[in-house]
Amino acid sequence: MDRNRLIRDITPTTANSPARARLTASVVAAELARFTPRDRLMLDLLDQHSTFTTEHLTDLAFGSLGRARNRLNLLHQREILDRFRHYRRPGSQSWRWTLGPVGAALVAAGRGEAMPRPAAVRDATARLAMSPRLEHLLATNGFFVALTAHARTASGARLARWWNEAACREATANVVRPDGHGVWTVGGRAVPFWLEMDLGTETLSRVATKLTGYAALGPRRAYPVAFWLPTAAREANLHAHLSRVGVPDGVSVATGADDYAAAHGGPAGAVWRLPGHAGRLTLADLPVSGGAVWDG
């Protein structure tokens, strides 16, 4: 059996299901009557960031895995959400959640747009499920989910902004292609940053050359470039490479390693290294240089 086989879990369509009925304004209105603020939050996040795991959505909206599963399963039955996972042995992979046909119709209705055909929504989910960049997207989303979860229990901390890759490209006129952008605030101090998610699939030379584009950004967008790497060993190798090739003028760089951060407070913690400096800083303590000012 193919270890990478895609498992879709699509609720069988019945005569009374929303997907069998034409997705009219009355159908959408009926679903809205059962909608909660938390449901709306999840739809907005999925619309912006495409997919999250069950654990991601637990951290973003529930806090309890049991409550999350119950609500997600109900929304799946109502075809507000769709889900998929890939066949793995041993064990099973967590569900990856996306907008379902009814959820996509609700989002479109909120924008005053034509509601998409259910088949088109299913096709989009299938393309995402088979995308070679899926794991990269999930890792990027997981980074911001971790910050959001930290802020829930840390007084004065907040993820004030979270942009996806498309929003970053638009803001920078495609000069750079960061995986995400955030503004992390603690105690009144705002630290804007560009996120470069690294899964260890590119050479360190290729990773370092990304900084050239950031040097071309004007001061208004000269935020620190935060590289998130899979291991502290790869992080150390990147620092060694940067010490040889240098960092472009006007660019601030910080690095964190996922394995190190797992035991030291996650991306909000004291896990960030600066080139040429000893020790580690929290995300809130990263220097914002080059005249960069949060314009949010």
Automatic annotation (TrEMBL):
Highest taxon in the source lineage: Bacteria
InterPro entries on file: Replic_Relax
Protein name: Replication-relaxation
